Amino acid sequence: MTMEGRIPATIVTGFLGAGKTTLVRHILEHAGGRRIAVIVNEFGALGIDGDILRGCGITGCTEDDIVELSNGCLCCTVAEGFLPTMQALLDRPNPPERILIETSGLALPKPLLKAFGWPAVRSRVTVDGVIAVVDGPAVAAGRFADDPEAIARQRLADPSVAHENPLSEVYEDQLQAADLVVLNKTDLLGETALERLRAEIAALLPRAVKLVPAREGRIDPMVLLGLSAAAEDDLASRPSHHDAMDGAHEHDDFESFVVALPEIDAPERLLARLRAASEAHDILRIKGFVAVRGRPLRLAVQGVGRRFRQEFDRPWSEGAAREGHVVVIGRTGLDRATIIASITGPGPELEA
Hints:
This protein is α/β, with parallel strands linked by helices. Helix content is 30%, strand content 24%. It has helices at residues 20-29, 49-54, 78-90, 109-115, 119-122, 136-140, 148-157, 166-176, 191-204, 221-224, 267-280, 336-344; strands spanning 7-14, 36-41, 66-69, 98-102, 125-135, 180-184, 210-213, 254-261, 283-291, 297-304, 307-315, 324-331.
């Protein structure tokens, strides 16, 4: 609890694949016995990040402590999803000592911050801080533009240039709401690219905000928590591209769908297919689980662009069908049939 007796809440935001879940999991692993509740906002038909957190095997972290909101972007469903969830957490006989909120990659922080001004929440919770997690290599490559090379040249020449691309607006809104910026995956950047990226991010920040480099979100929770920003009282210094819209915005530029996957023998072949599909289509993120024949653990896969990661995360639930699936997230207009065919393939090509 804070000195005012209000529960501190930390909002973790960032673009798709930046490493938000990894950072949240790292905080939970070093919670030091504190009761921490996590609200996960998954954009897509199936919640993947919630499963990752539930399967982490962290002592003291129970199913009830992970609350997943899968009914759409958190900033678009404040009244329908977020506020009732917060009320339920606060009304528990033993409420959490701290709340972590992991937004979807498409969420704008400002509408969520405004929700903390609601009387039912304001008297009992304060926003300790907004943490923006940045995918260093993706941003350095200009992933938020239709023509990355051209926009990258413009940004180098004029860091204050306004970008009309919706992905850039989401990215900039997340940075401008932040109390701390975590520049993740810095091990994949050269020194020159890293310094240039730090300068570009600093040029976008409307006030003095610390930027911390990281690898796989491994940052001491003492740095991430206890910022005491009271962000709900500091909205004026957190500008948004959508301020003039009174919080209303659309995510029609994005869509997601699920691809069912059978049990497989060769994970490397599946990863090759996912990588090829991501490169050939306007896909922003692919993530999910798959069953590997002869292995008792699920294989979790996540990828952005050509960068894909895999790990056997936890056993399949007793009696559960060994059926896998991945969620594909991209810009509106994806050729679903072609993408599904390229991932699943005709015949036994996914098999050994």
